[in-house]
């Protein structure tokens, strides 16, 4: 797949005050000021191409923030993607990822979904974890630090009672890390979670 930089933004990165990118932005970017990257040439996409190929076109330490909304679940090799993201991020840059929670019943309807995500997923790829339960890194060398992980409870707006109930659930279960861990261990299949949001930062190795 050939990469297409519609506005030749890669040639002008040094002239931008803030470089933010949105991976897999689709037909509508969530972050208007971000450089949208997608394999499909939607109107909102700034650089068209395979995410790995496009990221390799960015110079090292050239990006201030990376955003990704419902994209990581479509990727085969998360570790390689994180390595490439880390390479292009400046020290102190932020990485925000939102993906379906593994208890989301709609996750299994999409045949393009390849990975599962829960509270601890990115603890396997970060130097620290906010949670009591610790997980191994299996030799992975990381320069990411986890700043926040939140459970997101949603329902379609026409179902107003359901929507308000799930908003209340989000308030309760995100009140502290203990409640997040209690929910995922004991309640997630009784009361499914829609999404999980991760905020990481790049730290020096």
Describe, in short, the structure shown:
By secondary structure, the protein is of the alpha/beta class.
Structural summary, described in words:
By secondary structure, this protein is an alpha/beta fold. The protein has a domain at 60-151 and 195-202: Vaccinia Virus protein VP39 (Rossmann fold, 3-Layer(aba) Sandwich). It is built from 4 helices and 8 strands. It has helices at 51-56, 78-88, 160-173, 177-186, and strands spanning 4-5, 20-23, 35-38, 47-48, 63-69, 89-100, 144-152, 195-202. The protein has an 8-stranded mixed β-sheet. Strand 5 (63-69), helix 2 (78-88) and strand 6 (89-100) form a beta-alpha-beta unit. The longest helix is centred in the last third of the chain and has 14 residues, at 160-173. The mean pLDDT is 94.
Secondary-structure topology with pairs:
Elements: E1 4-5, E2 20-23, E3 35-38, E4 47-48, H1 51-56, E5 63-69, H2 78-88, E6 89-100, E7 144-152, H3 160-173, H4 177-186, E8 195-202
Parallel strand pairs: 2-3, 2-5, 3-4, 5-6
Antiparallel strand pairs: 1-4, 6-8, 7-8
What attributes characterize this protein structure?
single chain, 205 residues, alpha/beta, Rossmann fold, 8-stranded mixed sheet, 8 strands
The name of the CATH architecture of one domain is 3-Layer(aba) Sandwich
The helix content, as a percent range, equals 10-25%
Measured by DSSP, the beta-strand proportion falls in: 15-25%
Query: Which sequence of SSEs, written as H and E, runs from N to C?
Result: EEEEHEHEEHHE
Q: Note the main sheet.
A: 8 strands, mixed
Strand order of the largest sheet: 1-4-3-2-5-6-8-7
């Amino acid at each position: 797949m050939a990469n297409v930089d519609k506005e030749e933004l890669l040639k002008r990165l040094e002239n931008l005050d803030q470089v933010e990118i949105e991976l897999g932005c689709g037909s509508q970017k969530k972050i208007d000021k971000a450089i949208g990257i997608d394999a499909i040439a939607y109107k909102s996409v700034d650089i068209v191409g395979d995410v790995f190929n496009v990221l390799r076109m960015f110079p090292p330490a050239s990006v201030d923030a990376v955003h990704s909304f419902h994209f990581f679940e479509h990727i085969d090799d998360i570790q390689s993607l994180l390595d490439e993201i880390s390479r292009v991020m400046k020290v102190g840059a932020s990485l925000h990822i939102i993906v379906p929670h593994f208890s989301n019943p709609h996750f299994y309807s999409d045949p393009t979904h390849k990975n599962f995500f829960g509270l601890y997923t990115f603890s396997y790829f970060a130097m620290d974890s906010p949670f009591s339960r610790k997980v191994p890194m299996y030799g992975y060398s990381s320069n990411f630090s986890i700043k926040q992980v939140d459970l997101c409870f949603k329902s379609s707006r026409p179902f107003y009672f359901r929507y308000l109930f799930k908003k209340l659930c989000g308030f309760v279960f995100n009140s502290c890390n203990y409640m997040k861990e209690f929910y995922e261990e004991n309640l997630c299949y009784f009361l499914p979670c829609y999404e999980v949001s991760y905020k990481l930062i790049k730290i020096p190795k």
